[in-house]
């Protein structure tokens, strides 16, 4: 079924969660200035899903329409629809929608658990389907946590056990886990948190090879939020000083302090092969959707750049208009890679996954293009996004009249209108969202390693040998 964004917020406000901001426990977390932007962002994923049929597909599992982000992709058309949804969300939010990892976890766990059951005769896939039915029927918002803290990278997990999420006790009714996950976008505002392994493991490291789901009622789960300059801006208030009301990709560190997980929510348990399959599925899924995500972000920046030219009175300057054309080209190229990877994807145990080589290319090209677009936006905007007075100066009885007078560039726009655009551009150029967009879904270097492994260099070399007549 599909619910509204308001219903999601209402349900979320009924949860009791242990969330900390600046060392203090938050009580009314859905209304906290550093959490509310995340809640607003996720709420939009509900509203947008109901506006287009391709964003709310029919699920045979529950005999009803469901949110595209809770759907198991069955073919290339499904995957393309998911990428279109992702792009539009990123454009309309100008920040993270926080649910992409949950969707990728669903589409990674589905084939991984099915393979495991066929190989071992277990019932992990059945368990997963039961939770997926609940997710689809109740229209839950899901996220996924992968990155362990790892500590000293020269040590194997066995030598630094506490730095990895691991099993501390096995019971008849479930397992007890301990550890932490870092860089977790919006986990505190989700209904379901999938927890997946951070890497592949060797024999003897089975206690780390686990995947499970966390629900709001699970005790011992703590969320410690990031605190950047933008979080401080949200706390000081204002109508538009923060630039983007949907925030700047707000993340947290998730602590698992001896958390009990019942068996029905354990989907991989001490299985090294299933862990490899799961991580491969997730990596290609998440890196590929990241290309469409970047396309949407670039669409947002392109809109900001165009508005910036207008409020600055420079929208007829050819050299600046050309930079906007470049930005459009980068956005379309990034999304095209995602669409191509879906078209050339493959079926795996009932799930349609993107082409591995193209998915990793999407990550690399998406980030490179993103960096170029940021520079274009900075050149178009000039220095004003980092030197402008604040909203509070504009509204000041003492100096407001000066800001109103001297912050006007194009007489068709007031100082306040220009400042709203300026602050939004400032958000893109100076917030923590920029770094998050680069490393979200894994660093570009990791994707490059995959490209080196996956590329058929023999075929490429032989083609050149044929052209130049090289026999050896």
From TrEMBL:
Pfam family, any one: HpaB
Domain HpaB/PvcC/4-BUDH C-terminal, first and last residues per copy: 276-468
Segments traversing the membrane: none
HpaB/PvcC/4-BUDH N-terminal domain boundaries: 5-268
Keywords for this protein: FAD, Flavoprotein, Oxidoreductase
Cited Gene3D superfamilies: 4-hydroxybutyryl-coa dehydratase, domain 1 (1.10.3140.10), Butyryl-CoA Dehydrogenase, subunit A, domain 2 (2.40.110.10), Butyryl-CoA Dehydrogenase, subunit A, domain 3 (1.20.140.10)
GO molecular function: oxidoreductase activity, acting on the CH-CH group of donors
InterPro entries documented for this protein: Acyl-CoA_Oxase/DH_mid-dom_sf, AcylCo_DH-like_C, AcylCoA_DH/oxidase_NM_dom_sf, HpaB/PvcC/4-BUDH, HpaB/PvcC/4-BUDH_C, HpaB/PvcC/4-BUDH_N
Name of the protein in question: Aromatic ring hydroxylase
Species for this entry: Archaeoglobus sulfaticallidus PM70-1
């Amino acid at each position: 079924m599909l619910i509204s964004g308001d219903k999601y917020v209402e349900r979320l406000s009924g949860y009791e969660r242990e969330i900390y901001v600046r060392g203090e426990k938050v009580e009314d977390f859905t209304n906290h200035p550093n959490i509310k932007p995340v809640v607003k962002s996720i709420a939009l994923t509900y509203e947008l899903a109901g506006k287009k049929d391709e964003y709310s597909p029919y699920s045979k599992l529950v005999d009803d329409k469901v949110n595209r982000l809770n759907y198991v992709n069955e073919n290339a058309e499904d995957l393309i629809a998911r990428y279109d949804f992702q792009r539009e969300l990123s454009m309309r939010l100008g920040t993270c929608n926080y649910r992409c990892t949950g969707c990728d976890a669903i589409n990674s766990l589905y084939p991984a658990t099915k393979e495991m059951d066929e190989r071992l005769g277990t019932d992990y896939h059945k368990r997963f389907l039961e939770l997926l039915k609940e997710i689809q029927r109740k229209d839950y918002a899901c996220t996924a946590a992968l990155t362990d803290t790892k500590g000293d990278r020269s040590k194997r997990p066995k030598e630094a056990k506490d730095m990895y999420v691991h099993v501390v006790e096995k019971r008849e009714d479930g397992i007890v886990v301990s550890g932490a996950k870092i860089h977790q976008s919006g986990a505190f505002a989700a209904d379901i948190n999938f927890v997946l392994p951070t890497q592949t493991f060797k024999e003897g490291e089975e206690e780390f090879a686990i995947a499970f789901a966390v629900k709001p009622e699970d005790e011992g789960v703590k969320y410690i939020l990031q605190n950047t300059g933008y979080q401080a801006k949200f706390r000081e208030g204002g109508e538009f000083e923060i630039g983007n009301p949907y925030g700047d990709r707000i993340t947290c560190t998730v602590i698992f302090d001896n958390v009990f997980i019942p068996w029905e929510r354990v989907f991989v348990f001490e299985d090294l092969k299933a862990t490899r399959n799961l991580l491969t599925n997730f990596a290609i899924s998440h890196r590929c959707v990241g290309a469409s995500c970047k396309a949407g972000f670039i669409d947002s920046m392109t809109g900001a750049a165009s508005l910036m030219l207008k409020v600055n009175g420079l929208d007829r300057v050819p050299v600046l208009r050309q930079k906007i054309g470049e930005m459009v080209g980068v956005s379309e190229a990034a999304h095209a890679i995602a669409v191509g990877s879906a078209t050339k994807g493959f079926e795996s145990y009932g799930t349609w996954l993107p082409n591995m080589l193209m998915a990793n290319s999407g990550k690399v090209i998406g980030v490179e293009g993103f960096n170029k677009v940021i520079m274009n936006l900075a050149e178009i905007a000039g220095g004003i996004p980092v030197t402008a007075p604040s909203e509070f100066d504009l509204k000041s009885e003492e100096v407001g009249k000066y800001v109103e007078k001297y912050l006007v560039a194009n007489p068709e726009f007031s100082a306040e209108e220009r400042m709203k655009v300026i602050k939004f551009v400032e958000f893109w150029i100076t917030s923590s969202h920029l770094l998050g967009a680069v490393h979200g879904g894994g660093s570009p270097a990791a994707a490059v390693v995959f490209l080196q492994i996956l590329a058929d260099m023999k075929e490429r070399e032989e083609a050149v040998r044929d052209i130049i007549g090289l026999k050896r």
